[in-house]
Specification:
Elements lengths: L2 E6 L5 H13 L4 E4 L8 H11 L4 E4 L9 H14 L6 E3 L4 H6 L7 H16 L4 E4 L4 E5 L11 E4 L3 H10 L2 E4 L4 H15 L7 E10 L3 H18 L2 H6 L4 H12 L3 H7 L2 H7 L1 E3 L1 H13 L4 E8 L3 H12 L5
Parallel strand pairs: 1-2, 1-11, 2-3, 4-7, 7-8, 8-9, 9-10, 9-11
Antiparallel strand pairs: 5-6
Helix pairs in contact: 1-2, 2-3, 3-5, 5-6, 6-7, 8-10, 8-11, 10-11, 13-14
Length: about 325
């Protein structure tokens, strides 16, 4: 059966994030993912607050990276979260965002090795093992943590490009794919099926979507515009071409954002761009797109930013009108 999750950005007071997470649990969602950026509330503090107010929903960072946060620290943090949540922790990890890393004077070096070695080390530490590694990315000598979870914490790998998708297919318990359109999952699943082999049946394929729902389609559309503008600006040419998006128009969006002209950038976002990089509209519109994603191989849909004009209202529509259509 398909799973549903919620992505929340801790850019607002933690109590508001907790309230939305409690509502998500009460509404039948399966997971809640908290984004991990240095400029927002701390991910693990936020997750702990959620864990203390919920009983069933699984929860974790979506996603951390091994450049800002040492994987040994991550292993300790996720084991602690699993303990305080009663065995509900999930770990989302990826290669990070190059622009954000550069702000911290960090270089996104050897991303495949960084993610692979981090997953290997975290798993070993969570099994209670002592780790020594002289890897391409990690150098550790006789490292261990003093406690371990009573179960294996599922590790999800954030992946977009073909090499990271192959790696995630081979070593992850799930794959977090930042996409909202079936074309992207048809492309991804071709790679995943080839790389995963016998593991395919157990892999959780997650659509980490840009989502905006409202009974008024135009309100949902307007709320999705700024998020889609940033997605378009950062999208590789091959992805834009996959969706038939004019590269010159995409460049115009990128230029407007680089100049700080946010209204101008949103005005330049076309319906083709919205369709390619978001799920938006009425609950019925959104149900139709989710059905397409499931046909493409998705097993887990995460409702990501912006959610809708008002988050509480959007979450109510998600839990009362969208999710029940699939349960």
């Amino acid at each position: 059966m398909v799973k549903f999750g919620l992505e929340l950005v801790p850019s607002v007071p933690i109590e508001k994030i907790v309230a939305l997470s409690v509502a998500a649990e009460e509404g039948g969602l399966d997971t809640v993912w908290i984004t991990d950026h240095f400029y927002n509330r701390n991910t693990y503090v936020t997750l702990t607050a959620i864990a203390l107010k919920t009983q069933r929903i699984n929860l974790g960072p979506g996603v951390t990276n091994p450049y800002v946060v040492n994987p040994v620290w991550t292993a300790s943090a996720i084991a602690s979260l699993d303990e305080i949540s009663g065995g509900r922790a999930l770990l989302g990890i990826g290669a990070g965002d190059r622009v954000t890393l550069e702000k911290l004077s960090l270089r996104q070096e050897k991303p495949l090795a960084a993610v692979r070695e981090s997953v290997e080390v975290i798993r070993a530490l969570l099994r209670g093992e002592s780790v020594t590694i002289d890897g391409r990315f990690l150098k550790l000598k006789d490292v261990s943590i003093s406690f371990k979870p009573e179960r294996e914490v599922p590790i999800y790998i954030g992946a977009q490009g073909p090499k990271m998708l192959r790696l995630a297919s081979r070593v992850g318990d799930g794959i977090l794919i930042n996409a909202s359109h079936p074309k992207d999952f048809e492309y991804a699943m071709e790679i995943v099926r080839s790389a995963a082999g016998d593991r395919l049946a157990s892999l959780d394929i997650v659509a980490y979507t840009c989502f905006s729902v409202d009974e008024d389609r135009e309100k949902a559309r307007k709320k999705a515009l700024p998020v889609v503008a940033f997605i378009v600006a950062g999208a590789p040419g091959a992805v834009l071409e996959r969706h038939g998006i004019d590269l010159c128009k995409a460049e115009s969006v990128r230029d407007a954002l680089s100049k700080g002209d946010f209204p101008g950038a949103m005005h330049l976002v076309t319906d083709d761009m919205l369709s390619a990089f978001s799920i938006y509209g009425t609950p019925e519109d959104c149900i139709g797109r989710i059905e397409e994603l499931l046909k493409a191989g998705v097993t887990h849909v995460v409702f990501g930013s912006p959610l809708g004009a008002k988050k509480k209202t959007a979450l109510k529509l998600i839990t009362e009108k969208i999710v029940p259509a699939f349960k």
